[in-house]
């Protein structure tokens, strides 16, 4: 029977002897069943068949295995042939008992060990079980440390109208300010004197960030050109979509407007770099095409210099990050109107990527997101990330502004000022990125893959804070796919991030302890795109397998404990949708391509957030989705921040923290669930989950009904979950479509959809 390894592994892989001919090359891998956790660089074999890798890694584990499987493979001098020359199966049960397996081990030449010895592998593996780990607010052993003396401002959607959201009071009876993301970002860029740095998956020059709904507003492209004329160093990094890199194609498959943006700024002085995802030549032709053709630069950041209140002699750094790209379709409010704003706020910004329709007919695709502004030491880390990306891929083409002590406040001085704020924050920057996309300082707790340094601290942060959670988790994310090595059917090696498995392991452990613990997860009704398309259907299938794995594990533990509770008492999924009465809009033309949505006056609210809230005291938000593309560190490039207010941390759990994280969660719930009574409940209690689920069920009934009605907010995700954890679709198809709710397998590359 497999042993459950849950905690961390410290692996040191030194090298091997007697593994091949001098002059050829060899590499090694280490796997836990199908989840590969280490792959070395390709190194030359020397005298006596000796090869050295000297790789050291500290990794999170949550795996049920009998063995840890090491393989040594050689590559011919011409690179045309790969051969397995040795394999080693370390006993996982012995590792769990003793805590370490160290030394030189005889390898086998084949799985059955019939061919005798195949050399010696020197490897040390140390197992640190969860009970022996400490979990502070900061994540250790990652690139950027926790920074004290910071300030974080949280944004709910791109804009909030006056009185659109209820007043939420913190523990000190101070109301939470509903900030306006796009207006504040535009205002910060307006006040910049030295630098405006923007990095995005997409940047749209015709974006109007400040809107009245009546008169025309200044467009982003014109504004940035004017800021350059005023003396600002303006640098824009955009992902280079490879599907429109020919003169014959104007708009790429992903509709990022990268070519139009590049052309707009040409000759204006605004520096624009179209940055492809580059390979380093270690993956061959197919690998190169995979990296450049499938993976993206996905960070969404703005860095500006800003005035210091009360001082004119120095400047400081402000950084913005989260889920909002400066592109079309992102400007929205918590009302998420489908039709009524098509002639006002969205008259120049119609976005609908799931239906074939237009502005005359609608509906538009509503957009829900979260974003933040960082001040203090952590804001400088975001600046460093931007500089490191420019230096890696921009080279001499980009000229950045000089940061001098004559013009900018010293980090330590700004930190000292912000630390005096009783409502101050501590913040830590996390990334998914490797040295093909950013330069690194050596020795900064990086891990390696194929000899390539990478920062996978976003996943490390999620795992760390899920493990330290005591009461509840609240997640909003555009995707929810992972832990594919634990799927009950169709297990995959391509999507093994630990986040779903860590969540369900936490729930199971809390059930064993008879403690209240709840997990609320909000995802889109379906991924952006035509719901019947292969890509959307396959992503939905991976999501279904992830969710099913979680519910079945919860159900098994409830049965073992003799509990009458249902799996959904502990874990529930929601999506967002809106349905309007016909009189809500004067635009009632019929469009056969979107006939169902138009006739029924409904469409999903596309949830694009990437956020985790832990116990109402800690928040992670950024650009990273819960899938392998965002979490691996070698696929899409991502950035996130984790933060908390030291003065608003509950040491006992008996009293709610009452800080800005709790206020933000309640404000989001006010938008999604509407019923103010749920804001009074403790989120970890069964009664809170029951109320939330009832609202979601009622909203889904209204949304999916054949009868006309109004609803806007959270819908119970259309899964039926049995007492044994079996997941089935709650309806045959998504409303107004022919698309399966649980998806299907396709022939698309798995790296694309995971």
From TrEMBL:
Keywords: Calcium, Hydrolase, Lipid degradation, Lipid metabolism, Metal-binding, Repeat. GO terms for molecular function: metal ion binding; phospholipase D activity. It comes from the Eukaryota. InterPro entries: PLipase_D/transphosphatidylase, PLipase_D_C, PLipase_D_fam. The keyword Lipid metabolism applies. It is an enzyme of class 3 (hydrolase). Its EC number is 3.1.4.4. Pfam families: PLD_C, PLDc. Residues 293-330, 603-630 form the PLD phosphodiesterase domain. GO terms for biological process: phospholipid catabolic process. GO terms for cellular component: plasma membrane. This is phospholipase D. It comes from Rhodosorus marinus.
